[in-house]
Amino acid sequence: MPDAAAQSQTSAAPAAAADPVTVTAAAARRIRKVAEAEGNPGLGLRISVSGGGCSGFQYGFTLDDAETADDVVIVRDGVRVLIDTISLEYIRGAEIDFVEDLSGAGFQIRNPQAASSCGCGNSFAI
Predict the structure, then answer these.
(1) How confident is the model at residue 117 (pLDDT cuts 50, 70, 90)?
(2) CATH domain 21-125 topology
(3) Which long-range contacts (CB under 8 A, 24 or more apart) does 40-47 make?
């Protein structure tokens, strides 16, 4: 019976629909890879939104192993994405992905709240 309980917990884990932001499997793999390369598998990806950039707001990506009281923590495939509650209001409903293409590789945010964004995708307007 313990196996059945563990199995139901595992199958219930991808309840990303309840999360305010979706993290793709590719993003989770990249976060894990970077954390392991840094020698700290407990590192998570911190996403922030601040004023600036060519469109009004810009995304910030840093590695962090400490959660703060106002963080929303999203776990996907064992890795964490940390977003402070103020930044979350600007990216609620977004999808966090990791993309590799001819122009490079990086985290990408598909933000349904963004009315426009710059060519590089790192800044946006609401």
Answers:
(1) low
(2) Hypothetical Protein Aq_1857; Chain: A; (2.60.300)
(3) 40/65, 44/73, 44/79, 44/80, 44/81, 44/82, 45/79, 45/80, 45/81, 45/82, 45/96, 45/107, 46/81, 46/82, 46/83, 47/21, 47/81, 47/82, 47/83, 47/87, 47/91, 47/96, 47/109
